[in-house]
Specification:
With about 325 residues, the chain is mainly α. Helices cover about 80% and strands about 0% of the residues.
């Protein structure tokens, strides 16, 4: 990884391209592991690297300009989205298998039925990523790398420290967006606002990570951002889980209706018994709903109201601190 002190004295475009190249390299390493099915975390690491790469290209789009073609940006966006199904299903399956749930008999049957559905969809998602997404990545990565390397090698010293200033500005505006989103959250049903806050939090972390080691308080801020992401991520997982259960209930109901229809069409007097998985899933859904409320209380305690205001102000101050670097390395006086 490039030294964060070097980034602080970089011009805007070369600095942005350097960060993007780091995430591209991380995505490449994860893609190789994913292709070999080397470990269970390869997809997660590939997805995270792509999302960081995508955010970097988006956040520094004015600086990178036409150096990175629009089709490359779109390709990175599509690849990142293509990993969603496999990873999201994997997360839900891990919860279903690992959660210590006190279930009734119908809920246990529904858990097994739903787990089989999730396993099948996860495997299909992995296969799609390996067959299609990795192929797209292997084509796009060299083109994007060449474009970014040209930006780095073609950079000038006309705006020394400009990357620090630009990053500081983006930190402040993104922190403001986070504050607005947090201010709109009232209850656990405000899912759109919670999602907006979660995304703003991710972008703040992506902006801060490359330069944090060179900033006083930067590493502590990253730890705080990770905690923020963890809490909002776990809450978001419950929303995804409830949506998955809703979809599974529809499928279970359709399956039960199909069994009854075929029996009626066959003219059988004794109808075959169909498992009432929908009823069991509703019970699991209630458990997830209680979990969502519990996790929302934790988020509200730590990040809504005065707690959220303090959190946002601290991040904004880091943005101001970055803007004052003006091409100075840590420990040096800012350049006038």
């Amino acid at each position: 990884m490039t030294d964060s002190g070097d980034l602080l004295i970089a011009a805007p475009a070369p600095g942005a391209a350097t960060v993007a190249l780091q995430w591209l390299a991380a995505a490449r390493a994860a893609a190789e592991r994913l292709a070999r099915a080397e470990d269970d975390e390869a997809l997660h690491d590939f997805r995270v690297a792509l999302r960081r790469l995508r955010s970097t290209l988006r956040l520094y789009r004015p600086e990178l300009g036409r150096s990175v073609a629009a089709r490359m940006r779109r390709s990175v966006k599509k690849m990142a989205r293509a990993t969603n199904a496999a990873r999201d299903t994997e997360v839900q399956l891990a919860w279903l298998q690992g959660a210590r749930l006190r279930l009734t008999a119908p809920e246990r049957l529904a858990r097994s039925w739903w787990g089989n559905r999730l396993t099948e969809r996860r495997d299909q998602g992995y296969q799609s990523v390996r067959d299609r997404t990795l192929a797209t990545f292997r084509t796009t990565a060299p083109l994007l790398e060449r474009a970014l390397v040209r930006v780095v090698s073609g950079g000038s010293n006309r705006d020394v420290g400009g990357f620090a200033r630009v990053t500081g500005e983006r930190l402040q505006t993104t922190a403001q967006a986070l504050g607005v989103a947090l201010g709109k959250i009232r209850t656990v049903t405000d899912t759109a606002e919670i999602h907006a806050a979660r995304i703003a939090g991710k972008r703040l972390r992506y902006l801060l990570e490359p330069v944090a080691p060179a900033l006083p308080g930067g590493r502590a801020a990253i730890r705080q951002m990770k905690r923020f992401q963890d809490e909002f991520g776990l809450l978001n997982d419950t929303f995804v889980r409830l949506a998955e259960i809703e979809d599974a209930v529809r499928a279970a109901g359709a399956e039960q209706a199909r069994v009854a229809l075929l029996a009626a069409l066959d003219g059988r007097t004794t109808k075959p018994k169909a498992e009432d998985n929908a009823r069991g899933l509703v019970g699991i859904g209630r458990i997830v709903q209680r979990d969502a409320r519990r996790r929302f209380r934790a988020v509200a305690r730590d990040y809504l109201g005065s707690g959220g205001d303090r959190f946002v102000r601290a991040l904004s101050r880091l943005g101001v601190q970055l803007m004052k670097q003006q091409g100075s390395r840590p420990g040096q006086e800012p350049t006038p």
